[in-house]
Specification:
globular; mainly alpha; 523 residues; 39% helix
């Protein structure tokens, strides 16, 4: 793109001057609202016939597809976290009960028609298909509109659409594959067919994407972004191409060699390096981290486009924005961290202070606020019960609940862990241990490496644990637990759940909209 178009995109992306919502059928776009400030209530319906007549309009549409990624920070992120052993949302008095939705998610008792099914799970479906629909609108417009570097823009849109489908595949298994804006009911693809589609779309798009963008366009799709998504797909291939029945998962074919190769393309690209301080990956200035590969940009400049993680977990008095005192961590997970591991410091426990001023703070009864690792009863928890994940710290320039920290979907440490897991499964355990120890090195002083004598089975368990320590709070744990076969196991405050729950149900309201959809097994 010419510099003017790069500047135009960067301005839209930073300021959030993007369409705010999209109405979608289960698989197709109906209308898209126009380029406008997110705080407005736009009424225009955008189609390839009445918009996208020039380069600026196309770039605005491109930015809208990126902006839709922010929707994944509520539904997809919350469900990934709360249905795993990383987060639980206790009921605290009258707060956070919400008709049992949050405990429903933690306990795996959701149904297609429960509050969590119709609200949270259906919300994820709409968020992700909304992203697909936006990409389809832009791609159709590009068929008749000329823009500079058109092939690059088309590759971006196909890669982003594939990423939305990757997330849909993760949660729902087989879903309709939609590549046009035509509105009609569509049948589901199998999970294996969807895997093949996403793989091909990413592989085809990769060739046209740049190795990097100018700083003003930070956050856009690159070859490294595509390789990171592929590496993650391949490491989960046995799950993603497997067959789920009411009694469990029949795993598909492994793709360990492909996982190692995709991770290697990132590791050998020369574009990324481990940040000396792992905290730099998550601060309000984390756009400067050399480790981050694919991020969702956030801003405090416009209400509603900032990151709100700190609001979900911190206490009402943790800082002046008055967080919501919801998300916590069970003691089992908190206690699994080595006290010498610097990464344990992402948890807030003990006497609490204002996170901006450092002054001691009190609970709502006027007593000193103390966070305890233990939660006595998740259905009637105290204000200070439960450790809190504080990985993405408060942005000093916060705007209400909005913070400017960019959310990191993929970073270099994960590519190292993906390669280590793949190498271990391929029988190259010593090389895998060395990679894990590179990631561990910055977390321990003095160093505390894994033993080089670990067996393949021992390292498999160690990698599963190490991924918790390194990626806690990053929405990775649900996938990891499913891959390891522990997701539906009993844990604190949760009984063992049925094995088919590794997939979410197709929400009933989606099936009623598209009768060609079939419910996932077991539901």
């Amino acid at each position: 793109m010419r510099n003017s178009h790069k500047t135009r995109f960067a301005s839209l992306w930073r300021a959030g001057r993007i369409s705010a919502a999209l109405l979608a059928a289960p698989a197709t776009v109906v209308t898209v609202q126009g380029c406008t400030d997110l705080e407005e209530s736009p009424t225009s319906a955008i189609t390839p016939n009445n918009f996208f007549k020039n380069s600026d309009e196309v770039i605005g549409g491109v930015a809208s597809v990126y902006a839709a990624l922010r929707g994944t920070m509520w539904g997809y992120y919350n469900l990934s976290q709360v249905s795993s052993d990383e987060n639980v949302v206790p009921t605290r008095g009258s707060d956070w009960f919400d008709n049992g939705r949050w405990l429903d998610l933690y306990r795996h008792t959701w149904t297609p028609t429960s509050g969590s099914g119709l609200e949270d799970i259906s919300g994820v479906w709409n968020d992700l298909f909304g992203g697909v629909a936006r990409a389809n609108v832009v791609l159709q417009a590009l068929e008749t509109t000329e823009v500079p570097d058109k092939a690059v823009v088309q590759a971006e849109m196909k890669a982003l659409r594939a990423f939305y489908y990757y997330l849909l595949m993760d949660f729902f298994g087989g879903v309709p594959i939609v590549t046009t804006t035509e509105v009609k009911p569509r049948e589901q693809a199998t999970r294996a067919q969807l895997f093949a589609f996403v793989e091909k779309e990413l592989t085809d798009a990769r060739a046209a994407l740049p190795d990097a963008w100018p700083a003003a366009n930070y956050g856009r799709m690159t070859k490294g972004s595509v390789d990171a998504i592929l590496a993650n797909m391949y490491v989960n291939a046995q799950v993603f191409t497997g067959t789920v029945t009411p009694t469990g998962l029949t795993r598909g074919a492994a793709k360990w060699t492909e996982a190692a190769a995709a991770a290697d393309r990132v590791l050998n690209s020369g574009r990324y390096s481990l940040s000396a301080n792992w905290r730099a990956n998550f601060t309000a200035t984390n756009e400067n981290s050399p480790e981050n590969i694919f991020v969702i940009r956030h801003s405090t400049k416009v209400p509603g486009i900032g990151l709100t993680f700190v609001m979900r977990g911190l206490h009402y008095n943790s800082f002046s924005a008055s967080p919501w005192n919801g998300f916590a961590t069970i003691a089992t997970t908190y206690n699994s961290f080595d006290d010498a591991d610097d990464r344990k410091k992402v948890f807030l426990v003990g006497p609490q202070v204002d996170l901006l001023t450092g002054a001691p703070i009190k609970d709502r009864a006027g007593n000193p606020l103390v966070f305890t690792p233990e939660i006595r009863d998740v259905s009637q928890a105290g204000e200070g019960e439960g450790a809190r994940i504080y990985k993405y710290p408060v942005d000093p320039a916060f705007n209400g609940g909005d913070n400017g920290n960019d959310y990191v979907y993929f970073r270099l440490a994960e590519m190292m862990m993906v390669k280590a897991e793949a190498l271990n499964e391929l029988g190259q355990t010593p090389a895998a241990v060395a990679l894990v120890n590179q990631v561990r090195a910055r977390a321990f002083t003095p160093a505390k490496p894994l033993a080089t004598s670990l067996s393949q089975a021992e390292l498999r368990d160690a990698i599963f644990n190490e991924r918790l320590f390194e990626f806690v709070g990053e929405a990775k744990r649900r996938q990891d637990m499913i891959r390891a076969g522990t997701y539906t196991n009993a844990r604190l405050f949760k009984q063992a759940s049925a094995p088919f729950r590794i997939l979410m149900p197709i929400p009933q309201n989606q099936i009623e909209t598209n009768p060609l959809l079939k419910q996932n097994p077991g539901y």
